[in-house]
Task: structure prediction
Amino acid sequence: MDSWVRFNSQSQAKERVLRAAQYACMLLGYSLQKRRVGTDLHRTVSDLEAHMSLTRKLLRLGNSVEALQAAKRAIHLSDSVLRLCLTISHLNRAMYFACDNVLWAGKTGIISKLDQQKWSQRSFRYYLFALILNITRDVYELCLLLDCDDRYKSTKSPLSSTPSSVLPADHLSSSSSTIPVTAAPALMWVPLRRRFHQVQTVLYSNPPLLLDLLKNGCDIFIPLDKLGIYQTGPGFVGMCGMLSSVLSIVTILHPWLKLKP
Result:
């Protein structure tokens, strides 16, 4: 099984390139349709997109085995939240790939009279569950990093909160009374802006987490659109799919950018 996983990983880069090209064709087809360019060109782009989708399904044959192996590794993680999110996410990916393999067999005629719409909806449902868990994991990792950053700042400047405590009460009351009423809403946004800036700093200092969050954030619009939960149209889906594919290719070219575990 390990040898199959190693062999299967060699086709991931090709699958990612085909995925980027497929969603680029989807975006191009939407642009051609919107501009009402010749139907022949639009039909050619749509056929090319369908062929790339079928080729990707062929390259994904056996990915369920890799997802199950990843679930077996994730179940031994010490962090309970990561263990739960990653294990269930990999199991959902395994079911997604299994449904995708059945759908490939139906499209190629190996399985006749297959309800392709039902299996497509089923596969996208598993894909959506996996992405929700992946985003939950990313948010959890971000919260851990923010907590570490807060603890580091508190230990670095432990006396930052003491000056306000030594001020006289009459001074505090007089200073607070001089604050204009119009400045109160602006002061309320100060902690939010400070927190937002902290999130930006933490993400920029952790490129693997930033790329994974962007990739999952782009990918989640694909099953949401296909399942009819939140329809955004082929143009937006094509742009999101192409962007997430490019980010995946970057993590393959530079393995240190892949979020671990």
Confidence is low (pLDDT under 50) at residues 160-167. The radius of gyration is 24 Å. The chain is about 80% helix and 0% strand. Residues 116-156 form the longest helix (41 residues).
